[in-house]
Design goal:
Alpha-D-Glucose-1,6-Bisphosphate, Chain A, domain 4; binds NADP nicotinamide-adenine-dinucleotide phosphate; 2 domains; 17 helices; alpha/beta
Amino acid sequence: MSKPVILDESIEVDRPLEEVFAYVSEFSHIEQWDPAVASAEKLTAGPPGVGSEYRIDMKAGFSLHYRVVEFAPGRNMRMEVDSRLFTAREEIQFEEVASGATRVRYIAEFEFGGLMSAVTGLYPRAMDKVGKSAMAGLQAALEDEFESPRPSAGIALADKLIVPGVWRFSRLGYRVSRKQWHPVSASLRGRHVLITGATSGIGLACARELAAMGARLTLVARDEAKCEGVIESLARDTGNTDIALELCDMAQVAQVHALCDRLLGADEPLDVLINNAGALFNPRQVTDEGFEKSFALLLLGPYVLTERLHPLLAAAGDARVINVSSGGMYSQKIQVEDLQFEKGNYSGSVAYARAKRALVILTEEWAQRWQEDGIAVNAMHPGWADTPGVRSALPGFYKLTRQILRSPEEGADTIVWLAAATEAGDVSGEFWLDREPHPTHVLPHTRETEQERASLLQQLEALLQSTDSYLKVAANG
Ligand SMILES: NC(=O)c1ccc[n+]([C@@H]2O[C@H](COP(=O)([O-])OP(=O)(O)OC[C@H]3O[C@@H](n4cnc5c(N)ncnc54)[C@H](OP(=O)(O)O)[C@@H]3O)[C@@H](O)[C@H]2O)c1
């Protein structure tokens, strides 16, 4: 056994101690900031603390097993590390050096056995270099000064050629894209995020990540018992108990108005609104309020919710709206003469794609209209993700593609990024996949005219007004 190798590196950043500790102490984030790490996985449930364990796969081809043995919030964490090459004891210390500035000190003592002891004896500087580059990565992550991604001609061309664009919907597309991503160390503590459809699939994965980042969450759900179960599991997994439930069937416009009345009555600024709830309906269905269900759930519901919550978004000062659309919208144009698919042979997929197309148009309109309120409005699509919704609504598609589907977390990643990343607050009116802006049209026949766009907006506005006043009349007897 050779002498232990000791690393002792410090960085200082202009970030509050609490934010720095929250980011670094969730040790799976190491994959975002240490360039030597290929991936990191938390092996234990619950928020980080004594007993938390992590598996870290290194790009050099070996794995490390970390166990947290001491955890003092805002002060330090100690970890024991095991691998086939070495064992180590690591400590990360945190100290406020001035108001809003924090020092992070990393001390590690490595013990190498066998052949490796000779190698480390020969190359102490190599170890030093690895430690320094990890700390430089952490510094960049915490300084958080990344540029927002801009539309690229290469992506636009790939999308237009269809096949080179469509493979990106798969989990392979996700894995290729993520190699370019920057860390997200922004804190969501104190930020109010409302998400629809968080009881399953992509919305649930998104809520879990946002809860772990400390957001104050409002989950809008139609099934009270299911949502309460979700809130319990999120609290258990993340330690975040600041999660509220709002009951609302998003396909019932009366319920959406009632939800808006409650939220406006509470008058709490809204930092992030995520319109995620969705489903695909076959055969054609009509709600008891008389609306075709795809239109009601995917378009009218989010339209009324977003329009009416504008005062709460404006009050936040730098709010973000994220509309979850679908790659399926590339195939369709809006049909302003037939928004509810009353003509022709109904197809659930077409109705779904038309509504998702309209949601992207709304995104562009709101982004322009609300620019002066500091509200960033973006649409995204999650690619193809393995969720309960896809399994039940598209069994044939699921059977064919199951090997290449992403996980719900991978599908949710861009929503979380749009909600949290500092640089994502600088862009508005774009359509995203895997943190990259994509064109909204790849086929010429899907483009709407100015008149069609105006007609869509007029029809939705008229429905908002008529359903609201109808409700008020009904409520007043
Ligand atoms: N998965 C994909 O590959 C994919 C691809 C493109 C776009 N998307 C979009 O991603 C979003 C999430 O889909 P997902 O795949 O995660 O589906 P999912 O697993 O079926 O989850 C859908 C969520 O929406 C909720 N929801 C459905 N109808 C609702 C209603 N009337 N009122 C309130 N909530 C309602 C569901 O609540 P319950 O739990 O009560 O059912 C659930 O929480 C949808 O907008 C979908 O169109 C998904």
